[in-house]
Amino acid sequence: MTKNALKHTKPLKIPKIIILSSKVIAFLSTKWAVIYASKLFVTPIKHKIPKREIEMDEKSLQQMITVQAINRKVNVYEYGKNDTGKKVLLVHGWSGRGTQLYKIADELIKIGYITVSFDAPAHGKSPGNSTIMVDFIASIIEIEKQFGPFEAVIGHSLGGMSVMNAIKQGLKADKAIVIGSGDIVQDITDDFIAKLGLKPVISKLLCERFEQKYGGKMNDYSAYKAAETTLIPTLVVHDKNDPEVPVKAGINIHQHLKNGELMLTEKLGHRKILADQQVIEKIINFIKK
């Protein structure tokens, strides 16, 4: 494996100071540790838009809309022009942006589509400091009302899980594509708590805290469960070397789909996969057929 490929297959590391502070708080109080972990879990990192995404940012028609169900505002991007009305919805992942799937968007525009994307609450240009998957899902459903219908919807990472759940909740699209998506919510919280160096019981308590706040069971939002009720053709793309979401997640989602395809890649990791030409060609052909 080359150095460049290795770079894309290394997991993002939590700063040592946060790990240390988590352990100190947990030593003092389990309750405080859960509260601290929950705050970290719902707080994305806002990255400066990279140069490669500036063209999409500058050429998009942008507007801030209100997602009534959660009373949050999101910045929406309409990219490209056509007379056919054909549209594809793009959904970024955690700490991403509405322009993150720019490579896919560029290719879709070439074949006559308009892409609609958005900065999820507390991401990119959208206001706020914290958010959770239910906000992503509500945003997708609101955007369909205002900007749909969509021929296809594409989601990366948490965006993929959100897409699957939005379909479960009534989102209408002809096809879906999920890239590097997690499959089981409990696995995500377990991994997060493990990276903080905390005991597994904190993960259980963290889920219980969110369930009390938002209602329902967190694992009901697992993508593999949504896949069981998904009838539209769905393409699952996942890298065998993804360090943040293991490939078994993509395989599990595919196994629960009634009408699914699976594309496994190598040495692309969790983000480089979004710009890989073979992946983009597969997505384009999947939408066109």
Number of helices: 12
**Helix coverage percent of residues?**
40-55%
Gross morphology is globular
Oligomerization category of the chains in this entry: single chain
Strand order of the largest sheet: 1-2-4-3-5-6-7-8
N-end to C-end Cα span: 34 Å
CATH class of the largest domain: Alpha Beta
Question: CATH superfamily assignment of the largest domain?
Answer: Alpha/Beta hydrolase fold, catalytic domain
The major sheet is characterized as: 8 strands, mixed
Low-confidence residue ranges: 1-9
Structural class: alpha/beta
Let me know the number of strands: 8
CATH topology of the largest domain: Rossmann fold
Count of spatially separate domains: 2
| pLDDT averaged over residues | 93
- Level-2 CATH architecture of the largest domain: 3-Layer(aba) Sandwich
